[in-house]
Amino acid sequence: IGVFCAVGGVEPQSETVWRQADRYGVPRIAFVNKMDRNGADFYNVLNMLQERLGSNFVPVQLPIGTGETFTGLIDLIEMKAITYEENSQGVEFFEGEIPEDLLDKALEYREKMLESVADFDDHLLEKFLEGEEISPSEIIAALRQATIALKAVPVTCGSAFRYKGVQRLLDAVVVFLPSPMDIEKVEGVLPN
């Protein structure tokens, strides 16, 4: 998991570690953390990720608010809003409709996500071009394949300190990252 600060964005040490993961072919997902801090800007961090790290970053979540107003996130795969109960430290959350003021942005980023996912699966590309509905399970399967093949990096967001979005991040680890059965075996080399 590449963890990036929602305020500071891509920092030099993060860039170094990311390049090392590229060199060794490590599939990964990105988590934009500290969305509850003043000055947090998910979209700026997303631009920095694209510009500095050059991977194909695919947001699967969008934040609902930033800083003090960060209350939850939008799941672009399921197209629903997840809002967190402030007093429960993120343990209690509610799923519901996407707020009206964020619906256009959610639809825009869902369309971008579907375009990215369709690039990795010919069947989905056909469905996408014909305007057919693509199910969440199809999106997840294609994005998982792309992640394991190092052709995409799913992007999530939240606040680890307030435990908002952490459950969804762990779900993303299970859903998108490879099990030992999905990757090549590592061959050891005798030093002598």
Please give a structural write-up.
- With 192 residues, the chain is of the alpha/beta class.
- The protein is built from 6 helices and 8 strands.
- The longest helix is centred in the middle third of the chain and has 19 residues, at 100-118.
Shape: globular
Poorly predicted runs of 5 or more residues: none
Please count the beta strands (DSSP E, at least 2 residues each): 8
Number of helices: 6
Largest sheet: 4 strands, parallel
Structural class: alpha/beta
Oligomer: single chain
The percent range for strand residues is 15-25%
User: Average pLDDT across residues?
Assistant: 91
State the helicity in percent bands: 25-40%
N-to-C CA distance: 35 Å
- State the strand order across the main sheet: 1-2-8-3
User: If you compute it from the alpha carbons, what radius of gyration comes out, rounded to the nearest whole angstrom?
Assistant: 17 Å
Order of helices and strands: EHEHEEEEEHHHEH
Write the layout of secondary structure elements.
Elements: E1 2-5, H1 12-23, E2 30-33, H2 42-53, E3 57-59, E4 61-64, E5 72-75, E6 80-84, E7 93-96, H3 100-118, H4 122-129, H5 136-148, E8 153-157, H6 166-176
Parallel strand pairs: 1-2, 2-8, 3-8
Antiparallel strand pairs: 4-5, 5-6, 6-7
Helix pairs in contact: 3-4
Structure in a nutshell:
The protein contains six helices and eight strands; from the N terminus they run E-H-E-H-E-E-E-E-E-H-H-H-E-H. The chain is an alpha/beta fold.
